[in-house]
């Protein structure tokens, strides 16, 4: 079994300062050891029809599901979640054990 | 600049044999060198409300955007896309340069 992944894709509300939200997220993951890695991206590439208004993807990787659970119940995460929830217009969230089919050479 | 990512999240149609689709995708990425890595997951964890019916996430990583473009225009990808499109009930697709904020230790 590979890593456990937490994937969040969102569309932010129009008046939101996205850089501040992302800075908050970067601080959060740096403070919580159970987060193995964190990366994100802003889509300005794909077809609008297929993007469906979503603009940002955030991926966190954990060594195991228990580490993810520890993250979600961490007081700093709960605090940040309130800020994050207030900033988004729509969201899809997926949590799953990741299966690596093709590894980087 | 980090890797270029292609993220697809889907809900499959009810009568689809998902294993066959995933096998087809694994074959596809193994045959196309410009795909650096490929991983996927099936969410059976998160809250239904936040998952919004989506069940599967597929991530492909490319060294650069040009490699992604080469992938999307590859004849085998075009062929597979037809099969894939027929199998899905809904989809969100995001393509973006990925920014690594916290790297694996």
Automatic annotation (TrEMBL), chains A, B:
Pfam families xrefs: Dabb (PF07876)
Residue span, Stress-response A/B barrel domain: 4-96
SUPFAM superfamilies: Dimeric alpha+beta barrel
Domain of life: Eukaryota
Subunit structure of this chain's protein: Homodimer.
Protein name: Stress-response A/B barrel domain-containing protein
Organism: Rhamnella rubrinervis
């Amino acid at each position: 079994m590979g890593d456990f992944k937490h994937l969040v894709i969102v569309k932010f509300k129009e008046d939101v300062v996205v850089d501040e939200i992302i800075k908050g997220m970067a601080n959060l993951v740096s403070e919580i050891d159970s987060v193995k890695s964190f990366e994100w991206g802003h889509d300005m590439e794909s077809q609008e029809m297929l993007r469906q208004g979503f603009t940002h993807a955030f991926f966190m990787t954990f060594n195991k599901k228990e580490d993810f659970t520890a993250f979600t119940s961490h007081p700093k995460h709960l605090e940040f979640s309130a800020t994050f929830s207030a900033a988004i217009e729509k969201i899809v969230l997926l949590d799953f054990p990741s299966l690596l089919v093709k590894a980087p050479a």
